[in-house]
Amino acid sequence: MFNQNTATIQSSLGQAMALTKVSAMGVIQGMLLDMQLTQSFINPSDKEHVEVLYTFPLPVDAVLLDIEVQLDGRKLSGAVVPRKKAEIDYEEAISEGNTAFMLQENGDRSYSLSIGNLAPGEACTLSMHYAQSLRFAEMDGMNALRICVPTVIAPRYEMTEAVAAKKQNLFERLTTPRHDIRIEYPFEISLRLAAEVAGARIASPSHPISVMPGDGGTIVSLSRKGNLDRDFVLCLDQFSQQAFSVLGRDYHQPEHVALLASFCPQIAAADMTDVAVKLLVDCSGSMNGDSIQAARTALREIVEQLSAGDHVSLSRFGSEVQHRSPAMWKFAKPSKAAALRWVDELHANLGGTEMALALESTFAIQSSGRSDVLMITDGEIDSVDSLISSARAAGQRVFIVGIGSSPAEVHLERLARASGGSCEYVAPGEDVAPAILRMFMKLRSPVWQDIRIDTGFASQPLWSTAMPASVFKGETLNMFYLLPEKPQGQMKLFGRLSGQVEEVELGSLALTADLQADTSLSRVAAATYLSGMQGMTEQLSVVQELAVQYQLICTETSFLIVEERAEDEKPLDMPALMEVAHMLAAGWGGLGAIAGGVCSAPVMAAPAAAGGAAYSLSSQAAPVPAAPDLRSRLAAWKLSKLAALDMADEPGERSMDASNLPSPAAKWSVLDAEAMQAFFEYANAVGADRIICRDMHYQGLTPLGLTLLLRYFDEQLWPDSFAGLRQIQLGEAVIEWLELAIWEDCKDQLSPLQVIKLFFSIMAEPEMLERLLPSQEQRAGLQASERTSADTAQLLSVSADPAASARLETQLRNAVRELDAVTWSESIFLMDMEG
Length: 835
Description:
- α9 links the parallel β25 and β26.
- With 835 residues, the chain is an alpha+beta fold.
- The strands form eight sheets. Strands 1, 2, 4, 5, 9, 12, 14, 15 and 16 form a nine-stranded mixed beta sheet that branches. Strands 20, 21, 22, 23, 24, 25 and 26 form a seven-stranded mixed beta sheet that branches.
- Helices cover 27% and strands 26% of the residues.
C-alpha cells in the first residue's frame, strides 16, 4: 500500500497530496452559467502506482457537458457509457496494468473521480465543462442572482444505517469523503459577465474579489489567494432585464431546437396573510461556531417578523428532537418573550443530524389550520429522499435557510422544491436580516396554483420539463422545451390564487430570434428533463438511453477513459488506493470563525455533549454542563440506585406501600444538592418516570414530582424566585409560563414571590395529591404534610391587592385543573394566561 513517507509532494504540514490545484473559469450569459473546472493531480509517491479517489460537489442544477484529460501532456478522450459497464471496464483496465479514469454521479448528487494506475510522480489534469441554469431571487425589492460554486463537502451525517446499507459496492461506499485539517488546496476562479448582465451590481459575501471590464463584459476574480475551504458565492442585482430566452441546436438531432424560457413572475403586492410557522433549528455538532451564531441571529429576526394573528412553534434537533410545546403558540407578548429566551439558549450540542425524525415530529405538531415549516440548518446530511417523501405526505411546505460556508445546497434545494417551499442562503459574514425578510414575504404571500404557460408554439413540443407546484414573487421559473422547429412570438405565464376562480397573467416573454449553434443548451435541457424521471424504476431504461444519447452523466451512466500502457510501463501489482481528503469547511463545527470572508485560525476544542441525559445514574457527581441549555440543567443531581432499577422497568402505573419507602427524611435547613438527593431517594418509590419527565416536549419535574417535593420540604425552603425554580428542576415550559405569561400579566400588582407562593400553595394542597395519586393505598406511605387548602386562602387574605390575587388564583387553578401525574396541561405549554 501507499506509504506517505515516500511522498515527494506534501502539504506544509507534511501530508501527501494527490490534488495540487483547482481552478474555475466561466461565463454568465442570460440565465446560463457556462463553467470550465480544472483539477490537477499528481502521484506523490516515487515508488508505486496509485489509484486516486476524489469526491467533489457541483452546483444543484449543474450539468456536465464535456470532460478532457491530459496525462503527462497527452490529451485523452472518453465517452459516457452505462454505469455497470463502466465499473467492469475500469476494474479490468487497471488489473491489466493500464490507466483508467472514471467519473460517476453519486446518490447525493456529488461526483466521484477514480484515477487508476497513476505512475510514480506522474501528473494529470482533468477539465470538466458544465453548464447551470440560474434563478432570480428578490433582494431589497430588486431581482438578483445568487451564484454558488461549491468547492468542498463538509462532513456529512448518515441519518440511518439503512442509508449506508444501500451503498452496495466499493465505488458507492467510498463516496463519503474524509477530511484532514492539515490539508490545504489552492483555488482560483474567474467569471466573465456577458453584456446583458455586465451592468449589474456585483458583490461576494464569501471571498474578496476584483471587478474589471474586459472581453466585451466584466471580469470577476479573486483578489487574494483562495482555498477549497468554502463555497464561492457571487451576488448580482440591479438588472434591467426581467425575463430571458435562449435557443440552441439539439445535440442528438440538430434539426430540432432547444429552448430555455426564464420567467420572473411580476406578482402585484397583495394583502399579506397571517402565518403559522413551525421553526425547526439544527443544533447538531456540525452547527457549532459560525453556523449556530448565524442561526441565533436569524431566529431573532424571525421572531421580530411575527405579529398578532400569527402562530409559531419552536423545535430543535440533532440526534434527538426537542419541541418547546406540543401545539403551536398564538403569537403574543408572553410567547414572544419565551421565544427570544429559547433562541438565546440554543447551542450546537445535540450530536448527529437526524433530520427525518425531526421533520416528521414537527409535521405532527398540532395546528388549527395550514402551517409551514421553516428550518435553519447547514444541511450536512448525506441523503434527502426519505425527507422528500415525508414532506409530500404531510402536505406542509418546507422553507429552508441554509447557513455556513458550505451548506449542502443540492439536498436543501431538492427538499424545498419538492414540498412547494423555497431556500435562502446566508454565508458567514453576510447580513441575515434580508434573507429572513425575503423568506417571510414568501411565507405570507398568497399561494399561487394551477400555474400554466401559453406558449404560442406552432407545433407541439417533443418534451418539456415539469411545471413547478408554486411560484413566488421575484423567483425565476425556468422551463426547458425540445421543439421540432424554431419558435417565434411571445409566451405568457398564468396562475390562480388559492380560493379564486379567475387566473391572472404573471409574466410574459418575447422569444429571442438568435439561435445558438452550440448544443450545450439542449444537453442542459435533457438533463433537467431526466432529473424528473430519476427514481422511477419503470423509467430506468428511458433515462439510460437518453443519457447516453446526450452524453450525460447520471445515476445510470458513467464517464470512462482507458489509456493502454506499454508493457514495460505496467506495474507488477495492483495500485495502492489513495483517497483525496477534503479541507474542513471554514468555520465548520466551531473550527475557527469567518469574519469579512476570511477564516481565522482554527481553535481545537472538545466536542460538546449531545444534549446530555436528564440525570446521571452513576455514583459519580454529575458533570458541569458545557452550555446552559434545558437538558444540561437537568444533570445537576443524580438519581439513586433504586431510580436506576425503576427506569429499567416498563413505564406505566406503579403501586407502592410503606415498605417501599426509605426512612422518613430529616428536617432540612437548606435546599441543597444533598437535600435534593434525599428527596429523589424518597420519591423514587413512586417511580422515577413519574417524578421526572424526559420527552421531546418537556424535561423536568412532573406535576406529581413537584407536589411531592413541596410536601417533603418545609415551606420556608421553597424557592422564592424564578431562578430558584430551575434549581429544583422544574421544567422550562412551566417556569416561562409562570414568569412570561402569568406574572407578566399582573406584575404591576404582584411580585414574583407572590405568584410563586400561590402556585406552590395550590400544588401542595391535599386535593392535588389525591387527584395525582388517587389510590389511598399509594398515599399511605407518604410523608405526612400539615398543609391544607386553608393555607391558600390565608395567602389571599394577607395580599396587598386581594383583587389581583383572586384573579391570579383563578388563572392558576384553571391552568392546573387538567393535570395528571406526569403531564402538565396544554395551556401551560401554550403560554395561556387564562388556562
